[in-house]
């Protein structure tokens, strides 16, 4: 099994260049997606089915009363306990050995359950048309460049980050790096923290934030929706057991019926044979 990896993002080093956005678009061959003017420096309101990586610009008044810009690279968090994986009725979403959460395009039916249950709002449905012009939808999001990882490369966004705000590596090494960085910036940023929420089992995209998560538009304590837990961990297993029991009952009934009919048919033949002998 491959090692588990983490993408580590230090927002205090980000200079807002958007190179990560461009690299993501280029590598994944994602179409351009013009949007209405967002105001100030923001190019896209949020990640979408065709824009998997967005740089967020946040105007923030610091503790000294000064206005400053905060930047955050935004993409899928690749949760260890992913709600999207739990609620997918087609088993189209799965975990890789690298820790990334990926969508099987061939299995996805565009139901949107993953979109509705993602606590970070990073999955969207892309619309396509078949050869007859009929529209259909597929869920899409950041894959953490799993195809690159399989070839021994790093995610495109990490490679192109010139200020070194993003790094990628072994889980333990990245967590250690985050802790070290946090200790270095605590004096300058007293509210600094490591964002690796336990409510989703931890994530494979972790952040060193200069301010509280809510300042960056992140949920303070995200968790897998209770409905997703009930569906995946209780309803589905019980349903499969019931389906198995039902199937066995149907098969038993079928076999019994065949045996019963066979016995009756043979008995009838014996009677007919007896009559002919007489």
From TrEMBL:
<dbReference type="GO" id="GO:0051539">
    <property type="term" value="F:4 iron, 4 sulfur cluster binding"/>
</dbReference>
<feature type="binding site">
    <location>
        <position position="111"/>
    </location>
    <ligand>
        <name>[4Fe-4S] cluster 4</name>
    </ligand>
</feature>
<feature type="binding site">
    <location>
        <position position="76"/>
    </location>
    <ligand>
        <name>[4Fe-4S] cluster 3</name>
    </ligand>
</feature>
<dbReference type="GO" id="GO:0045333">
    <property type="term" value="P:cellular respiration"/>
</dbReference>
<dbReference type="InterPro" id="IPR017896">
    <property type="entry name" value="4Fe4S_Fe-S-bd"/>
</dbReference>
<feature type="binding site">
    <location>
        <position position="108"/>
    </location>
    <ligand>
        <name>[4Fe-4S] cluster 4</name>
    </ligand>
</feature>
<feature type="binding site">
    <location>
        <position position="17"/>
    </location>
    <ligand>
        <name>[4Fe-4S] cluster 1</name>
    </ligand>
</feature>
<feature type="domain" description="4Fe-4S ferredoxin-type">
    <location>
        <begin position="5"/>
        <end position="35"/>
    </location>
</feature>
<protein>
    <submittedName>
        <fullName>Formate dehydrogenase, nitrate-inducible, iron-sulfur subunit</fullName>
    </submittedName>
</protein>
<feature type="domain" description="4Fe-4S ferredoxin-type">
    <location>
        <begin position="99"/>
        <end position="128"/>
    </location>
</feature>
<keyword id="KW-0677">Repeat</keyword>
<dbReference type="InterPro" id="IPR014603">
    <property type="entry name" value="Formate_DH_Fe-S_su"/>
</dbReference>
<feature type="binding site">
    <location>
        <position position="161"/>
    </location>
    <ligand>
        <name>[4Fe-4S] cluster 1</name>
    </ligand>
</feature>
<keyword id="KW-0411">Iron-sulfur</keyword>
<feature type="binding site">
    <location>
        <position position="20"/>
    </location>
    <ligand>
        <name>[4Fe-4S] cluster 1</name>
    </ligand>
</feature>
<keyword id="KW-0479">Metal-binding</keyword>
<feature type="binding site">
    <location>
        <position position="114"/>
    </location>
    <ligand>
        <name>[4Fe-4S] cluster 4</name>
    </ligand>
</feature>
<dbReference type="GO" id="GO:0015944">
    <property type="term" value="P:formate oxidation"/>
</dbReference>
<feature type="binding site">
    <location>
        <position position="157"/>
    </location>
    <ligand>
        <name>[4Fe-4S] cluster 2</name>
    </ligand>
</feature>
<dbReference type="InterPro" id="IPR017900">
    <property type="entry name" value="4Fe4S_Fe_S_CS"/>
</dbReference>
<keyword id="KW-0408">Iron</keyword>
<feature type="binding site">
    <location>
        <position position="142"/>
    </location>
    <ligand>
        <name>[4Fe-4S] cluster 2</name>
    </ligand>
</feature>
<feature type="binding site">
    <location>
        <position position="79"/>
    </location>
    <ligand>
        <name>[4Fe-4S] cluster 3</name>
    </ligand>
</feature>
<keyword id="KW-0004">4Fe-4S</keyword>
<feature type="binding site">
    <location>
        <position position="14"/>
    </location>
    <ligand>
        <name>[4Fe-4S] cluster 1</name>
    </ligand>
</feature>
<dbReference type="GO" id="GO:0030313">
    <property type="term" value="C:cell envelope"/>
</dbReference>
<dbReference type="Pfam" id="PF13247">
    <property type="entry name" value="Fer4_11"/>
</dbReference>
<dbReference type="InterPro" id="IPR051555">
    <property type="entry name" value="FDH_Electron_Transfer_Unit"/>
</dbReference>
<feature type="binding site">
    <location>
        <position position="145"/>
    </location>
    <ligand>
        <name>[4Fe-4S] cluster 2</name>
    </ligand>
</feature>
<feature type="binding site">
    <location>
        <position position="118"/>
    </location>
    <ligand>
        <name>[4Fe-4S] cluster 3</name>
    </ligand>
</feature>
<feature type="binding site">
    <location>
        <position position="88"/>
    </location>
    <ligand>
        <name>[4Fe-4S] cluster 4</name>
    </ligand>
</feature>
<feature type="binding site">
    <location>
        <position position="24"/>
    </location>
    <ligand>
        <name>[4Fe-4S] cluster 2</name>
    </ligand>
</feature>
<feature type="domain" description="4Fe-4S ferredoxin-type">
    <location>
        <begin position="67"/>
        <end position="98"/>
    </location>
</feature>
<dbReference type="GO" id="GO:0046872">
    <property type="term" value="F:metal ion binding"/>
</dbReference>
<feature type="binding site">
    <location>
        <position position="84"/>
    </location>
    <ligand>
        <name>[4Fe-4S] cluster 3</name>
    </ligand>
</feature>
């Amino acid at each position: 099994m491959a090692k588990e990896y983490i993408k580590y993002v230090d927002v205090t080093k980000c200079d807002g260049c958007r190179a990560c956005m461009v690299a993501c678009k280029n590598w994944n061959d994602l179409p351009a997606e013009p949007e209405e003017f967002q105001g100030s420096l923001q190019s896209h309101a949020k990640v979408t089915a065709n824009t998997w990586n967005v740089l967020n610009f946040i105007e923030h008044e610091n503790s000294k009363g000064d206005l400053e810009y905060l930047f955050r690279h935004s993409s899928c968090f690749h949760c260890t306990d992913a709600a999207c994986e739990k609620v997918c009725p087609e088993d189209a979403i799965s975990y890789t050995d690298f820790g990334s959460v990926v969508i099987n395009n061939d299995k996805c039916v565009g139901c949107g359950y993953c979109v509705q249950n993602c606590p970070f709002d990073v999955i969207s449905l892309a619309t396509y048309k078949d050869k007859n012009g009929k529209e259909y939808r597929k869920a899409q999001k950041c894959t953490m460049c799993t195809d690159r990882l399989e070839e021994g490369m790093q995610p495109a966004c990490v490679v192109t980050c010139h200020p070194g705000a993003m790094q990628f590596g072994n889980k333990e090494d990245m967590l250690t790096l985050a802790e070290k960085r946090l200790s270095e910036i605590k004096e300058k940023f007293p509210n600094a923290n490591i964002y690796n929420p336990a409510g989703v089992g931890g994530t494979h995209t972790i952040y060193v934030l200069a301010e509280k998560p809510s300042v960056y538009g992140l949920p303070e304590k995200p968790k897998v929706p209770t409905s997703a837990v009930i569906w995946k961990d209780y309803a589905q297993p019980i349903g499969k057991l019931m389906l198995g029991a039902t199937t066995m009952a149907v098969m038993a009934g079928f076999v019994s019926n065949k045996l019963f009919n066979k016995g009756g048919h043979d008995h009838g033949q014996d009677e007919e044979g007896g009559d002919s002998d007489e």
